[in-house]
């Protein structure tokens, strides 16, 4: 099912962030949400995820039981290892070999046993990405997943994201104009 948002409005105090906003995110395809800082990209994702409530409008088609996310801030369990953070979402189904292989593919092998609080910003980002990818979701929502990564690591993470999200609904927020092409996005939402 496509994810459809219709006539959304959202204000914070006197600031109107979304006004009568509508869009359709195609099922099993990648959509990039592109826009300047502060235009409301994260707010829209939060409404789709059910973290924020819109003042008006409607969201439909979100598979809430099969949804995973990379949040703007990593939202990891600081005292657990990278591996344990990833395992948390798997309901016991993710094998150690799969976690090891995926972590290696995003150049994160050295973080396997380390508590997340000891990891760099870019490493934490990759733990959050791997966690979302291994969660066996139908729909994955990512808020700037490549933030803070050097070019080579970015290319590696991009490859892994594309491999795992093939045939799934992927929604990616970015303010990098190159990323819709890099992700091979089928749809582009440019926010004003
Ligand atoms: N909980 C909140 N309370 C008050 N204002 C908020 C809140 N969340 C967001 N805003 C404001 O709403 C506007 C849109 O924020 P949002 O985080 O959705 O933008 P964004 O496009 O994701 O920005 P960025 O690219 O910098 O992450 C900003 O002006 C922000 O300050």
TrEMBL record:
Keywords: ATP-binding, Nucleotide-binding
InterPro entries: AAA+_ATPase, ABC_transporter-like_ATP-bd, ABC_transporter-like_CS, ABC_transpr_LolD-like, P-loop_NTPase
Domain ABC transporter intervals: 3-191
SMART domains documented for this protein: AAA
One Pfam entry name: ABC_tran
MF (Gene Ontology): ATP binding
Protein name: ATP-binding cassette domain-containing protein
């Amino acid at each position: 099912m496509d994810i459809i948002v219709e006539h959304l409005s959202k204000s914070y105090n006197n600031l109107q962030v979304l006004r009568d906003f509508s869009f359709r995110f195609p099922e099993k395809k990648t959509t990039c949400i592109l826009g300047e800082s502060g235009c409301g990209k994260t707010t829209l994702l939060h409404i789709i995820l059910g973290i924020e409530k819109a003042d008006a409008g409607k969201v439909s088609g979100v598979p809430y039981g099969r949804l995973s996310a990379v949040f703007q801030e990593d939202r990891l369990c600081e005292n657990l290892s990278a591996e344990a953070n990833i395992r948390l979402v798997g309901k016991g189904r993710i094998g150690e070999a799969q976690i090891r292989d995926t972590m290696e593919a995003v150049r994160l092998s050295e973080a396997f046993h380390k508590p997340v609080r000891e990891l760099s910003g870019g490493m934490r980002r990759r733990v959050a990405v791997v966690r979302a990818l291994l969660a066996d979701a139908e729909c994955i929502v990512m808020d700037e997943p490549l933030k803070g990564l050097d070019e080579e690591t970015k290319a590696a993470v991009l490859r892994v994201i594309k491999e795992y999200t093939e045939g799934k609904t992927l929604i990616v927020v970015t303010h990098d104009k190159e990323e819709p092409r890099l992700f091979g996005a089928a749809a582009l939402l440019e926010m004003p």
